[in-house]
Amino acid sequence: MSFENKEARSHFLIFAYTSLDHPIEECYRDKVLSDIKNGKAEKGLEEKFTTALVGCSFLSKEKGKIDKATVDEWFLKKHNKISSCKAYEGTVIGLNGEGATVQTPQGQKIYKTKLKPNLKVGDSVKVHGDYVIE
Ligand SMILES: [Zn+2]
Q1: What's the whole-model pTM score?
Q2: pLDDT of the residue at 22
Q3: What is the CATH code of the structural domain delimited by 87-132?
Q4: How many angstroms separate the alpha carbon of residue 65 from the centre of ligand 1?
Q5: How far is the CA of 99 from the centre of ligand 1 (A)?
């Protein structure tokens, strides 16, 4: 099944590439994430993430296309049940050189802010693995 638009695909790929279940050198991870953010994600990149792609396709059965809300539903809800790495919605409660401290329903943790460098305390964010993704 295909994505509704470029934005939905990028959202999927950012969630996918911040997964701690996807072993990858940090410098390569950062390069791919920056390509995705800049709209330069290679064709077919999503095919590496079969479970997430099948999950999102299943959730999109009636819509016929994978949209951004479905990508959120997969990663923030379903994927947390089957994966050791988690995605949450949360609030930025602190910022320092290491990253952003984010309060989520599971507690506080410091997340990398490479994908969202201009955060402020009080911002609502989505986090996955070690990263603030949105
Ligand atoms: Zn994950």
Answers
A1: 0.93
A2: 80
A3: 2.30.30
A4: 22
A5: 19
